[in-house]
Write a structure and sequence with these properties.
The protein is an alpha/beta fold. The chain contains 8 helices and 5 strands. Helix content is 39%, strand content 11%. The chain has a 5-stranded parallel sheet with strand order 3-2-1-4-5, with helices on both faces. Helix 5 links the parallel strand 4 and strand 5. Helix 1 crosses helix 6 and helix 6 packs across helix 7. The N and C termini lie far apart (44 Å).
């Protein structure tokens, strides 16, 4: 299956890229600059593409991102500390982000005669991100089947959609993903902050998977109290 992977440079999407490279035909990585404050993640996506020997395209959506106001990822708002399963994390929602990115990905796949577009949405995203849920994935596929009817057949490949981030860590390790060469933190500092939702979830995932976490965190123990681990 010739597959384009939407890759942010984070743990999930880089692990997915390694999985696709091992199990299918990796046609390339597609990233988006939508004005995110943690845009340094794009450097990690570029390194992933270089490591896997495929093309990497970055689509400039900064003007679009500027119109999607109200998110702590794009506006001058504080990224909250804590776990994803908290109401406070809803400020990290960028409205319709995945739908916009996937639409571009499907157009690119059709143009390049690829069989699939892969994205690393997973069960941990379901609580606050509606465009990461299985019903959205099914609906988007149905929409694209109509949009590309008679033009191309492209599958939306989401192997992690019903799994956990710990499952992604396990799968990533199986395919030799260099976790230290991925970026998750929404605050975009010199090292992972260890306190934002994505850092807490990342640290917890390694713990649940029973795999050593090579990530350097500014606050390496914050996650314990947040998730109830001594």
């Amino acid at each position: 299956m010739k597959t384009i992977v939407i890759c942010s440079g984070g743990l999930d999407s880089v692990s997915l890229a390694h999985k696709v490279a091992a199990e299918h035909e990796l046609a390339g990585l597609l990233s988006f600059d939508y004005g995110q404050r943690h845009a340094k993640e794009l450097d990690f996506a570029a390194r992933c593409a270089e490591r896997l020997g495929v093309a990497h395209r970055v689509v400039d959506l900064r003007a679009v991102g500027a119109a999607l106001t109200g998110s702590a990822l794009t506006d001058d708002l504080d990224v909250p500390d804590g776990h994803y399963a908290e109401e406070t994390m809803k400020i990290t929602v960028v409205p319709n982000r995945n739908a916009i990115m996937l639409a571009v990905g499907f157009g690119m796949a059709a143009a390049q005669k690829a069989d699939a577009v892969a994205t690393a949405v997973h069960g941990g995203d379901h609580f606050i991100y509606p465009d990461c849920r299985p019903d959205f994935i099914a609906a988007f596929q149905a929409m694209e089947d109509h949009a590309l009817d008679g033009v191309a057949k492209v599958q939306l490949y989401t192997p992690f959609v019903t799994g956990s981030k710990a499952d992604i860590v396990t799968e990533g390790a199986r395919h030799g993903t260099p976790f230290e060469d991925t970026w998750s933190c929404y605050k975009g500092g010199e090292v992972h902050c260890g306190r934002c939702g994505t850092c807490v979830e990342r640290r917890e995932a390694f713990h649940l998977a029973g795999i050593a976490d090579p990530t350097v965190y500014a606050d390496a123990d914050f996650w314990r109290a947040t998730v109830g681990v001594k």
